[in-house]
Write a structure and sequence with these properties.
Strand content of chain A: under 5%
Number of strands of chain A: 0
Low-confidence stretches of chain A: none
Shape of chain A: globular
Oligomer: heterodimer
Helix content of chain A: 40-55%
Strand order of the largest sheet of chain B: 2-1-3-4
Order of helices and strands of chain B: EHEHHEHHEHHEHHEHEHEHH
Chain lengths: 188, 293
């Protein structure tokens, strides 16, 4: 199937992706090994090799709506098998970061929502805190009933901690989040 | 032998069994583990999917504490292990990243703390012969599918854990303890990792494929070194039962639990009762060892 992209006035996002991932994407020759090994290839509209090709062809922000961004499991099989040494997984991370910056991730919400809930508890407590993370995620995703049947046995087995552990270095963690924010603002 | 030990957040929740079995095996083998005081979350998958700096600085905070203690670090969680090594790599390769990280940490950190997975340390510093020699029980021919997943072996240039397509570290341990490490093709396939809650559908599909292959290969259990592989393969069997009407009843045990059993640690002290799919068959096979010592 031929891969085509809409040509708009705006320049494509390949330069931004190359800069963020530190990868030269021009060396990709479409062997498709990344897509062959990708565990979610069959589930997504555009597998990794097609994302690479779309970037070559000058795709713009519409690429940030690709479903693979939030279905990619970050297993890095693509990077491990690329004969040209492209860290395809870093390209996926770069695309996710751009999508988050431009708000595109809101449409494909649950993974980025989970990531936000996860990192919020880290920012607050220095370590993850399951109950707060699960609550924030469930409220945001409205998936209230998912996995609830497992909670009683998980609580009994102490596989979910009821209280946050406060022995992590919260001060340093907070400074790290602050610096991350500053770096982002400085880059704009 | 004394090491800085990074348990990771899951050690306090879903992977208490990993944590207690790591501690029990260490105790039995005379290894001293010291947690870096005030260790904090590595950021895991959420960190690197969200922001590059977070993914480097969060692990670096705990690495810098290990450096203060003057100890090499061992990590039992494959995800934390991965993030620690990738962070070290990023700090060593970018002076800009290093200076920003140091500013956030409020201390110097050059990416130099040696990080190994608990299993690497066992093999390199203790040695397989010594572990096998200390065993009071045998795995008695237990058919084990050794599952490595992604985070131990990839990215290979940074992790350098083992062969990235056909790792054998777990297999060697299982074999030395008298088990049969199965030759099977899904050693480094992905379980879906951090998408367990946010895309359960994807995780159910991927774990089903791994479980199906393990079953077809004749496995009596799957052994893992990663808490995300463990919880996905273990807990999601309940969803597979409900959604796909397939019952694997496949115990998913940490390698440290298998080692611990052979060293004579009680199943309770190894967190066996915390597994969602009971592993009584595994405990039974080992307890039936006829000791010749």
């Amino acid at each position: 199937m031929a891969i085509t992209v809409k040509k708009g006035k705006a320049q494509g996002i390949i330069n931004a992706v190359q800069q963020a991932s530190g990868m030269d994407l021009s060396v990709c020759f479409q062997c498709k090994k990344c897509s062959s090994g990708c565990p979610v290839s069959k589930l997504v509209k555009s597998p990794p090799s097609e994302i690479m090709r779309r970037l070559h062809l000058g795709a713009g922000d519409e690429l940030l709506d690709s479903d693979i961004l939030w279905m990619c499991v970050s297993c890095e099989t693509c990077s491990a098998r690329c004969p040209m040494g492209i860290d395809v997984a870093a390209v996926m991370d770069a695309l996710r970061h751009l999508a988050l910056e431009k708000g595109a991730a809101k449409k494909e919400g649950n993974v980025s929502l989970f990531n936000r809930a996860f990192l919020k508890t880290v920012q607050m407590f220095g370590r993850t805190y399951d109950i707060a993370m699960i609550a924030a995620y469930k409220v945001g995703s409205r998936k209230f009933m998912d996995d609830t049947e497992k909670f009683p046995s998980m609580l009994k087995k102490r596989k979910i901690a009821l209280l946050p552990n406060l022995s992590g270095d919260r001060k340093t963690t907070k400074r790290i989040f602050k610096k991350a924010k500053e770096r982002k603002e400085g880059a704009k | 032998m004394r090491y800085s030990y990074f348990p990771g957040c899951s050690a306090e929740s879903t992977a208490r069994d990993m944590h207690v079995s790591t501690l029990a095996v260490s105790k039995a083998l005379g290894i001293e583990l010291v947690e870096p005081k005030g260790w904090s979350c590595c950021g895991a998958t959420a960190g690197h999917q969200t922001d590059h700096f977070l993914s480097v600085a969060l692990p670096a905070a705990s690495l810098a504490k290990a450096k203060d203690d003057g100890l090499d670090m061992v990590v039992s969680c494959a995800a934390c292990y991965n993030r620690m090594k990738v962070a070290n790599h990023a700090i060593r390769n970018s002076s800009e990243m290093r200076s920003d990280v140091e500013e956030a940490l409020g201390q110097q950190y050059d990416g130099s703390v040696k990080v190994r997975h608990f299993l690497e340390m066992l093999i390199e510093d203790v040695g397989i012969e010594k572990i096998a020699g200390a065993a009071k029980y045998s795995l008695n021919g237990l058919k084990v599918a050794c599952y490595y997943g992604c985070l131990l072996v990839r990215p290979n240039e940074v992790m350098k854990f083992d062969d990235p397509e056909n790792p054998t570290l777990l297999d060697r341990l299982v074999t030395a303890l008298g088990g049969e490490a199965l030759d099977w093709p899904h050693k480094v396939e992905c379980c879906g990792g951090g998408l367990s809650m946010s895309r359960t559908d994807v995780v159910v599909g991927l774990t089903d494929a791994v479980l199906q292959m393990a079953k077809a290969s004749g496995a009596q259990c799957i052994t893992v070194g990663c808490p995300m592989c463990q919880i996905n393969l273990d807990m999601r069997q309940l969803d597979i039962r409900k959604q796909l009407s397939k019952s694997y009843d496949m115990p998913i045990v940490y390698i440290t639990q298998l080692i611990g059993l052979c060293l004579g640690v009680s199943p309770q002290d190894l967190g066996f009762e915390k597994l969602m799919i009971p592993a009584e068959t595994v405990v039974k096979v080992v307890s039936e060892t006829v000791t010749t010592k």
